[in-house]
Fold this protein.
Amino acid sequence: MIEARELTKVFRDKKRGEIRAVDRVSFRCEPGRIFGLLGVNGAGKTTCLRTLATILRPSSGTASVHGYDVLRQPEKVRSHIGFLSTATALYGRLTAREMVEYFGRLQGLSEALLRERLDAIFAELDMHEFGDRRCDKLSTGMKQKVSIACTLVHDPPVMIFDEPTNGLDVLISRTVLNFIRHCRQRGKTVIFSTHVMREAEKLCDTIALIHHGAILAEGTLAQLRERAGAQDLEDVFISIVEGSR
Amino acid sequence: MSLRHIFIVYRKELLDLLRDRRTIISMIVVPVFIIPVLMTGVGGAAVKIVIKAQQQIPDVMVLGGEDSPATLAALRALRTVKLAPPSADFTNLITEKTIRAAVAIPKGFDAALQSGEPTGVQIYIYEGELRSSIGAKALESFFQDLRERTVRERMAARNVPEMLLHPLNIRQTNVAPPKKVSGNLLGSIIPYLIILMCMTGALYPAVDLTAGEKERGTMETLLCSPVARTDLVLGKCAMVLTASLVTTLLSLGSTGASFMLAKKMAAGMAGGGELPLTMDVSSLAAVFVMMLPVAIFFSATMLAIGLFSRSSKEAQSYLQPLLILTILPAVASLLPGVELNYRLSLIPVLNVSLVCKEILSGTFHWNYIALIFASTCVYAFAALSVAVALFKRESVLFRT
């Protein structure tokens, strides 16, 4: 479960002054459901997810992830989440196996459990073939599988996906989206950010439309359609964004 | 703070960096090959050049002296110089290195020597040119012999005992043991080299583990792990320190081996016995102990600079001034008259450089050693604290 309460993140820039990247955002993500953060580039999706993952500290407000407070228990939060984005890169000089082992150890897994988890994940993601190959020699699809394996190694109850299909081709995107669905089936709490309307439409149980750091609307796809009086999600999005001005 | 986490980070960074050719070059190849090349290669080449120049007979010119056949004949008989035909353009010939030196003999030189009238010769040289100074030295030595012979003849003619000229003798005897002689000769340059190597060893890993990680996008991956930021910095710093210490240790070993080799080479080239220079393992070990806090200081400082930088390129541009700042106090310790005192004991780098010089000459000033070790530990701790503080700042971690 993720619960954000008036979550705010303000950056101070010498040239641009105060930037409210996330503005009093509140929402709730339930286990076994996919919560989508839909917004254009620069809407505040990444900052919001980074704050939930405790990579950034909120300026005000707070959030709890799997019952742990992001301000008071950041390390506990990080040990209960899997964070995946296209920006999270791999160590090129490590092999796929070493990479997953490293993150498993950092998550505090014992060597026996790590071996067990590694075998299971490698079989599930069909990674045995390239497990001993260096990450800088892997294809984009293989790299994405390694990233997924790193986020899954400790079997976290909460998964955070920050535009995980950004820049990926259709086949790799499909693998990633299937993996996200699989997480829902396993009863994990999933939060997923995207600017691709079709992905949100296909995947999310609840969608929050985020614009200029603030959530403009939240609900199921049917609820959002009803509110905007439009069928296509793109039209729904434009209608709600324009209505907020 | 979790030692387990620090060790996991350290082990991964070690594995990662050992697979990087650039780290191997800066950590192993540079100390193992550069120091021997500097100490034996460059030193040996310099000795060879001097010996070769000494073996070659320089061309010199005699200007005038037509009315002094005895002097001219004696000069022609010299085996240490070869006479070139006289020319009015002798200055250009010297500067163009066609001839190495010239001597002007005034009119009536032999006659003046005979009659006892004052006279003199003028030697022309190319200042600072090795073979010119060898040629000039040969001419000077010839005329000094001639002067002494003339004095002896004149004194004999007047029945004056020769010993009147030598009322007292001056002799110098070295009482310092070979270790102290070595320490004085090499004690400045060796700490300078070791400090430089200690820094060089830390430089590349410090940049790669911080700015390099930001550049490659792996920093965010790492920050998603539950490991405390302090543990991440300490794990990374331990790796940079390892690289720095390995480089220092290899530099010290390589220095010791090169020193022994250079000593043998110099003795062989000089054609004589062993030179009165020595260096023992205990002094080198003491230097290594003194370098420990320096290596931590360098590692943490460079880690902090690397963290602050947006990219490896930016980090390198910040580290260049640091390199100069480090070289300056190390060079200051080479200056004559700069001796260890309580004030200098607090200046980072210079203090270690000076105390290592003393240690290498076998002098252990325990009060200075304790003060310098403690003060360097304080600087190292301060640098490490800055690195940890920077790693906790979002504005630094996400500075793009």
